[in-house]
Protein 1
Amino acid sequence: MKRISLTQYLVEQQREHGHIPGQLRLLIEVVARACKRIAIAVNKGALGEVLGSAGSENVQGEVQKKLDIISNEVLIETNEWGGHLAAMASEEMDSIHVVPNRYPQGEYLLLFDPLDGSSNIDVNVSIGTIFSVLRKVGHTRGVSEEDFHQPGKHQAAAGYCVYGPQTMLVLTVGDGVAMFTLDRETGSWVLTQDGVQIPEDTKEFAINMSNMRHWAPPVKQYIDECLQGRDGPRGKDFNMRWVASMVADVHRILTRGGIFMYPWDQREPDKPGKLRLMYEANPMAFIVEQAGGMATNGRERILDIQPEKLHQRVSVVLGSKNEVKRVTDLHLAAGPAA
Ligand SMILES: O=P(O)(O)OC[C@H]1O[C@](O)(COP(=O)(O)O)[C@@H](O)[C@@H]1O
Ligand SMILES: [Mg+2]
Ligand SMILES: [Mg+2]
């Protein structure tokens, strides 16, 4: 098999399509390098003393794990000096991190969920890193949080790394989705799948069923019809999977299809959902769309949502096109309140 490295892939994309500027290519390579360092820490587990809680809370009031903090630091440290970024934002930081004056300033903004699936860290189940890249628009000096408030359709690149039985990097620069597997012996990312396509139909759904009694009627109806299997209106049996690491659930969907949902629920009616728009939903929605799937908040395309806050939350329905469409149609038919 001819081995194509991440560098080679990006250079070829640049040559063929001309839409990956040098700074963006560098940025992606640096993020991939940071993910490699995080993978090494994840791999060491208890031997590296990286498991367990850090005893602090993030801006959303969630208890931080040691790996949440380590991964955040690795991403900042590897990215801030390269000259490709103006600023970064993270799930684990209250506000944006502007690249210090001692380093050259770049034109991109990087957002990340440094460690996704925190509840799975200590139980040796797949976790990951999610990232989104925006271009700093406008030519004003300096950078502010408002510069980040761009809808997901403006992302220049997005990706995630999954730390599972294999460490994989999944990437889109707006021209399809490519998957790379980390060769631990050589330390390089090797292209293992290009032109990833999500099947349009599926018999597999992913949702945290323990929240069922709190869901809105359209979500209840959709899942109820799936559960009725071949005796119900769908006329086929469904299977369920829920890893509780979005990266792992989305990775399965990219590989063999499926629908993923983390919907609004009535426990906290003012909160649109659990997942964060800018560094979880947007990058995943970009990847899913680039692989032929669909991603909505139940009503509108996630990539069209105009963000108002860095840590804004959103309801998420993504994956195989025909199923996401079905859930979205049920919401639209139910009217504005549901
Ligand atoms: O524990 P729950 O409610 O099933 O939530 C699981 C979801 O929460 C998350 O773990 C949130 O991500 P973080 O670990 O980055 O906070 C998602 O990855 C996952 O889909
Ligand atoms: Mg997350
Ligand atoms: Mg996280």
Protein 2
Amino acid sequence: MQSIVDLHRYPLDHQESPEWLALVDRAKADLAREGMFNLDGFVRPDMLRDAVAELSPKFAAEAFTHKRRHNIYFRKTIEGLAPDHPALREVETINRTLCADQVGGAIKALYEWPAFAAFLAATMDKPALYPMVDPLAAHNVMCYQAGEGLNWHFDRSEFTVTLLLQAPDAGGDFEYRSDLRTDDDPNYDGVARLLNGADPELRRLSLSAGTLNVFRGKNTAHRVTPVQGGKDRIIAVLTYYERPGARFTAEEQIGFYGRAA
Ligand SMILES: O=C(O)CCC(=O)C(=O)O
Ligand SMILES: [Fe+2]
């Protein structure tokens, strides 16, 4: 794992050591304050270079191109919400996805490394976190070319873990609005305000390659703005659940990836 993660800076292999505990505390404080934490330089430049070299041809040959209109919920209808409510305004998303069964190497190794899941669980105050067993959804790598982006949405899982493999020259920013809703209050009017471009609490983050980003995606609305220029934005998305064995239904797999497995 030393050749993948910078373990000198981020000693995930020394669980419960003072340095590990300090890192967990810092991540927890950031999560409490901002709904996210970032560990820059988390993975080594060689790993980034190899992963990009390995995955780039696969994006050209076999990625699922995801182009569709959707609302922020990724659901056709929301119970209790009129179909013409502005919170259901549709937006367009275009990007390319490689699924877990198409991504191996260092990303799979990191995803399945128990010390990584243990560290993440500690930052989120969970007893444990487990990788999904879903052959498609477990870990994905997404590629955004010029003009492509991922539009406004809430995630299904409480937290989302990403690792930027290659940053674009311009655009491709991560925009987010922390705690736009809660599990008890859907705040439809606040959602409508955000979609109308009128939410003053919108924040923007420009990630650098190698950064691990963890954010509360379930109630934080977020999007990736369109990439500009010839360098693609390539990012791994690692999904963990509090129970072992999580997987999508065949219908969800087809909705997200265009195929079932
Ligand atoms: O590409 C990113 O930075 C965010 C990805 C994301 O929001 C998602 O996969 O749900
Ligand atoms: Fe997301």
